[in-house]
């Protein structure tokens, strides 16, 4: 059936010889007639729909046409299920890649500013603990985690001379430092995964 892509009808299974396990199964179960319909979608065989009958069965043309139509619909349903699973898997991989990129950005900032090494991770852990104590829904925590990891990402745009300064900042230097949340917004707002979802308040600098 799979190789030839043809429906198979065996009216008397007892006439089949030399099929080993299948032959024994037919005898043990008392199956008399057998029908098999290859499930084909987009020129691919996805499986076989098998019908076993314990009484002699002689299907007419109308019944066969009906079963072939059922087989076609079943093949399409299986193909759609496979595509849905593949799409879900691809989405999960994409989200994992997004999260790995976000963590990479946070790590890059820490490498640039040794004084705050580990700060992003600590801030993220504290933020998640606080969110759970406030009974924030579990599905929202992923967005909170991303926000916490990236809360200082705008400092990437701050000059080294200010970011790495050992002493207090001058008023002029503070004016340069203050817009770093705006820089973060400008850097991150084009990323679709990080955009505010419908029904949630928008975020602006």
Descriptive notes:
This protein has 205 residues and is mainly alpha-helical. The protein has two domains: 8-83, GAF domain (Beta-Lactamase); 98-194, Hypothetical protein af1432 (Orthogonal Bundle), CATH 1.10.3210.10. It has seven helices and three strands, in the order βαββαααααα. It has helices at residues 21-29, 61-112, 119-133, 141-149, 160-163, 171-177, 180-188; strands spanning 8-10, 33-41, 44-53. β2 (33-41) and β3 form a beta hairpin. α3 packs antiparallel against α4. Mean pLDDT is 82; it is low at 198-205.
What topology does this entry show?
Elements: E1 8-10, H1 21-29, E2 33-41, E3 44-53, H2 61-112, H3 119-133, H4 141-149, H5 160-163, H6 171-177, H7 180-188
Antiparallel strand pairs: 1-2, 2-3
Helix pairs in contact: 3-4
